[in-house]
Amino acid sequence: MNEIFASVMLMVVLLVLLSGGVWVGLTLAGVAWFGMEFFTARAAGDAMAMTIWSSASSWTLTALPLFVWMGEILYRTNLSESMFRGLAPWVNALPGRLLHTNVIGCTIFASVSGSSAATCATVGKMNIPELKKRGYTDAQIIGSLGGPATLGLLIPPSIILIVYGVSAEQSISKLFMAGVLPGLMLAALFSGWIAVWALLNPDKVPKADTSMSFKQKLYEARNLIPVVLLIASVVASIYTGIATATEAAAIGVAGALVLSASQGALTWKSFQASLFGATRLYCMIALILSGAAFMTLSMGYIGLPRQLAEFVGSLNLSPAMLILVLGIFYILIGCFLDGISTIVLTMSVVLPIVQAAGIDLLWFGIFLVITVETAQITPPVGFNLFVLQSMTGKQITYIARVCAPYFLLMVLALAILWVFPEIVTALPARM
């Protein structure tokens, strides 16, 4: 009975603080302090200091600011322009033609960014004007950008996979490898949908650009070589075991600086801007993680995770039904919270339930990230929707509607991963 009263009070405090505009990290710490102070005998101040220090000093977490910095450096290069020039000649023969540059471009940039919003903004900045100029409809341009841009959360190096790995105490390197094949599968589903739509609506697809010879296509593809080499060096160093995720992040930063310098984009001003941008983003994430770590401790002392796990266990849900319920729960909560907040806010309660059901935490991490991806294109708090609105001037409701097919494709991907879990576990098992 005490646990029920405590959970109700904590929920009230949480909602009051969030609705009051308090930062998510401070809200989590505030709720945790309230719980420790009023529902346990442990000194709240002492517990908060020790927990926040231990969470912030984690060596595993070092990879996060490095990958964020790598993305910030590349954000300021001519990467998106190079991608369009390198990809366009190769996709003209496909149904849907240049719309595929959005999918492939997002897949490539996701591999060096780790951020969904950065992927959406960077690829959109180049592709939207180019595709409009060639006569593609707004609906298809926006939809084929908003959906695939979510791959920034899944394809390594992924910021949110690092957050999950730290929260669930899972290997970051194995999580990165687990995200590769599902990410490529999602990209294939997105391109497949564009092809099907183009075959059903041939009159809405502009004619192909001037055809090029194979030699000319190869010449244009030279623009992709630097970024492909950077991706390969980061992923290969992790897969082969030569480097840990943190060391691979350092390799990525060094490669990004070299690539930026070779394009003439590396100046003292751009270097400072990338460093400050990465610092701001990481500080926001670190504050959320610190608050979440304190909240996890508070929940443990109060006994809420154990009580909830016992309650869910008493329902005798099958693993499939549990995953279905959790999927719906995360999609709904993702409509109101960003991905990182969603994960750190729920880990202390959800992980014991998932472990009790015998579900592989590596597989669950990828499942969780894909459900969080859907939240990037669902109103009212879909980050990609806001990015696209700022670039196109369209209403949020319109953007959400044209992105809806890609939301359904992500739900389909979750079903496929449940039936074929080897898509997630194959690469980590061979490391």
TrEMBL record:
Belongs to the TRAP transporter large permease family. The chain crosses the membrane at residues 12-36, 56-75, 141-164, 176-200, 221-242, 248-268, 280-302, 322-354, 361-378, 398-420. The lineage of its organism: Bacteria, Pseudomonadati, Pseudomonadota, Betaproteobacteria, Burkholderiales. Pfam families: DctM. This is TRAP transporter large permease protein. The complex comprises the extracytoplasmic solute receptor protein and the two transmembrane proteins. It is a multi-pass membrane protein. It is found in: Cell inner membrane. It comes from Comamonas nitrativorans. Part of the tripartite ATP-independent periplasmic (TRAP) transport system. Keywords: Cell inner membrane, Cell membrane, Membrane, Transmembrane, Transmembrane helix, Transport. The keyword Cell membrane applies.
